[in-house]
Amino acid sequence: MKVRNGFVSNSSSSSFIIGIAEIVNEGRVMKYLRNSKLWEFNRLEILKTNELDFVTNENGTTTYIDKLCEIDKGVSWDGKDILMAWVEAPTNDEESCQGNVEVSPDKTLLIVRIGHNEDDGPFIRQDGFSGLDYSIVNEDYFENEFPDSYKVLELLKGKKGMTNVVAFRYGVSRCG
User: Which residue range forms the structural domain that includes residue 128?
Assistant: First the structure.
């Protein structure tokens, strides 16, 4: 019989990138993403604000919900009509990001919901203590381990000049 000493878990860990960006140049964004495997797995979505089908809920809020995000209509502190977008990490309900975009009929949004299921292996502490070390998940981690995800993170941050940043978040969390 094998006995494992140290950290034992029945669940796993997953890194994630979630976010919302306003697309400035849709043609350039599409060209940039064309070879990304992430596009094929429905982890990215492009939404045009004038094509969203909103539904009025029982509580009076007007909401658009799809596979990657939820968007509510609202009003900003200075009286402007806005869309409040919310994206949940694919790993669990605790990790999310939200951002507001001023409403206009010609806005195009990039919605990102990427999750990787690495298991616990990459996160096991290397300092002799038991447990997991999630501090290794930073931009360099994605650049080295998941280059396609890193390309999307660069878009979310507005580094390529093709998007305006609305909100993004990356990290790691437990799955189960």
Answer: 19-165
Q: List, for residues 130-164, the tens digit of each pLDDT value.
A: 888 888 889 999 999 998 888 888 888 887 788 88
What is the total count of domains within the chain?
1
Do 173 and 18 touch, CB atoms closer than 8 A? no
Residue 112 resides in a domain: yes
Q: Is residue 79 part of a domain?
A: yes
In a domain, 126, yes or no: yes
Distance between CA atoms of residues 158 and 164, nearest Å: 5
Output the pLDDT for position 142: 92
Q: 13 in a domain, yes or no? A: no
